[in-house]
Amino acid sequence: MTMVPAPGDPLGLIRNAAIGIQDGRIVRVGRRTELAGTRATEVVPLGGAFVTPGLVDCHTHLVFGGTRAAEHAQRRAGASYEEIAAAGGGIASTVRATAAASVTALLAQSRTRLHALMRGGVTTVEIKSGYGLDPASELRLLNVIRTLARSEPVRIEPTLLALHALPPGADREAFVERVIEDLLPTAARLGLATSVDAFCEGIAFTPEETARLFEAAAAAGLPVRLHAEQLSNSNGAALAAHHRALSADHLEHLDEAGARAMAESGTVAVLLPGAFYTLRETRVPPVDLLRRHGVRIAVASDCNPGTSPSLVPQLAMNMACNLFGLSPEEAIVGMTRNAALALGLEQEVGTVEPGKAADLAVWRIAEPAELGYWLGLLPERRIFGGQDSLP
Ligand code: NIG
Ligand code: FE
């Protein structure tokens, strides 16, 4: 499944294929018979397995302390995400647990989750900060992400989730000011983030605060993305599109104007069915609207302690099909080609094409649709930069 689309063939399927890899990059892709004369120092037969690009998980919050297992019980007893947050739980509770954890402990538990995603076929993953809130704590988390990026065979895109929650007791205006004047420029100067994110929502930050952050991000030379329209419609998607965001994520409450704006700016719609499922939401994102406007759709795990404690990336593809009505093809494109686009990495990853990184996942399945069918399928092999590397 090259993910290089052709008419009637969204997956760019080549049967009986061979992939040539040199120095960590893909150099040839074609039918085995066409590549028969090629000299190779090593031939690795895959015995009729299906090969996809390595999965791209374009929305995670996997660096955090503690868990939120207790909230899982509260939700079963009927409490909503907003009610739990208003009572001091939610993001604030993970912020406390994260502050209480040493860097060593944070690294250890985050690495365990990262390994789980990698075992699931992920070769590129976006990781957000956002459980630090104040500048020093956010920079500490971005440094943990950097340490992971330098020590693990996986491509990590670090995102500064600059406006996630207001610290308890903080003055709104002063907090936003400090994020914009101090945290954002510092993270940009230290090269600790490649994009900037915010949570634009009734229980989080307003469109006006988000817009100020986005202007500052542009001034610092960083692209933006946004948690938009998850629990209500704040016109976040249109705001994100106006700032030429790489992606707008969640989108359960997206309206037509938002979809049109996203199509015009090329902003990718990142669907997060794990969060929808965990919060037992009932309103599904308007997938038909996205299709009609030609908005590119990506799918991600949203691995985070509160709303998507998700560790098997393929399950997000299954949920995108079962809960949101994506076709298996759309779900697979959503965790490869379109997810690469959501990260601005479309020149580097997301398809099996000459010139791209040799990042692959090998699946022991009989047909592509199985990637949308199983609940928690793991690949047989994972190849990162041409190297076999299942953790
Ligand atoms: O993607 N919506 C905000 N951020 C996360 C959840 C964060 C949390 O509850 O810890 C999300 O769903
Ligand atoms: Fe999120």
UniProtKB/TrEMBL annotation:
<protein>
    <recommendedName>
        <fullName>Imidazolonepropionase</fullName>
        <ecNumber>3.5.2.7</ecNumber>
    </recommendedName>
</protein>
<dbReference type="InterPro" id="IPR032466">
    <property type="entry name" value="Metal_Hydrolase"/>
</dbReference>
<dbReference type="InterPro" id="IPR005920">
    <property type="entry name" value="HutI"/>
</dbReference>
<keyword id="KW-0408">Iron</keyword>
<feature type="binding site">
    <location>
        <position position="59"/>
    </location>
    <ligand>
        <name>Zn(2+)</name>
    </ligand>
</feature>
<keyword id="KW-0369">Histidine metabolism</keyword>
<feature type="binding site">
    <location>
        <position position="304"/>
    </location>
    <ligand>
        <name>N-formimidoyl-L-glutamate</name>
    </ligand>
</feature>
<comment type="function">
    <text>Catalyzes the hydrolytic cleavage of the carbon-nitrogen bond in imidazolone-5-propanoate to yield N-formimidoyl-L-glutamate. It is the third step in the universal histidine degradation pathway.</text>
</comment>
<feature type="binding site">
    <location>
        <position position="164"/>
    </location>
    <ligand>
        <name>4-imidazolone-5-propanoate</name>
    </ligand>
</feature>
<comment type="pathway">
    <text>Amino-acid degradation; L-histidine degradation into L-glutamate; N-formimidoyl-L-glutamate from L-histidine: step 3/3.</text>
</comment>
<comment type="similarity">
    <text>Belongs to the metallo-dependent hydrolases superfamily. HutI family.</text>
</comment>
<dbReference type="Pfam" id="PF01979">
    <property type="entry name" value="Amidohydro_1"/>
</dbReference>
<keyword id="KW-0862">Zinc</keyword>
<feature type="binding site">
    <location>
        <position position="302"/>
    </location>
    <ligand>
        <name>Zn(2+)</name>
    </ligand>
</feature>
<dbReference type="InterPro" id="IPR006680">
    <property type="entry name" value="Amidohydro-rel"/>
</dbReference>
<feature type="domain" description="Amidohydrolase-related">
    <location>
        <begin position="50"/>
        <end position="363"/>
    </location>
</feature>
<dbReference type="InterPro" id="IPR011059">
    <property type="entry name" value="Metal-dep_hydrolase_composite"/>
</dbReference>
<keyword id="KW-0378">Hydrolase</keyword>
<feature type="binding site">
    <location>
        <position position="230"/>
    </location>
    <ligand>
        <name>4-imidazolone-5-propanoate</name>
    </ligand>
</feature>
<feature type="binding site">
    <location>
        <position position="227"/>
    </location>
    <ligand>
        <name>Zn(2+)</name>
    </ligand>
</feature>
<feature type="binding site">
    <location>
        <position position="68"/>
    </location>
    <ligand>
        <name>4-imidazolone-5-propanoate</name>
    </ligand>
</feature>
<keyword id="KW-0963">Cytoplasm</keyword>
<feature type="binding site">
    <location>
        <position position="306"/>
    </location>
    <ligand>
        <name>N-formimidoyl-L-glutamate</name>
    </ligand>
</feature>
<feature type="binding site">
    <location>
        <position position="131"/>
    </location>
    <ligand>
        <name>4-imidazolone-5-propanoate</name>
    </ligand>
</feature>
<feature type="binding site">
    <location>
        <position position="61"/>
    </location>
    <ligand>
        <name>Fe(3+)</name>
    </ligand>
</feature>
<feature type="binding site">
    <location>
        <position position="59"/>
    </location>
    <ligand>
        <name>Fe(3+)</name>
    </ligand>
</feature>
<feature type="binding site">
    <location>
        <position position="227"/>
    </location>
    <ligand>
        <name>Fe(3+)</name>
    </ligand>
</feature>
<feature type="binding site">
    <location>
        <position position="61"/>
    </location>
    <ligand>
        <name>Zn(2+)</name>
    </ligand>
</feature>
<feature type="binding site">
    <location>
        <position position="307"/>
    </location>
    <ligand>
        <name>4-imidazolone-5-propanoate</name>
    </ligand>
</feature>
<feature type="binding site">
    <location>
        <position position="302"/>
    </location>
    <ligand>
        <name>Fe(3+)</name>
    </ligand>
</feature>
<feature type="binding site">
    <location>
        <position position="131"/>
    </location>
    <ligand>
        <name>N-formimidoyl-L-glutamate</name>
    </ligand>
</feature>
<keyword id="KW-0479">Metal-binding</keyword>
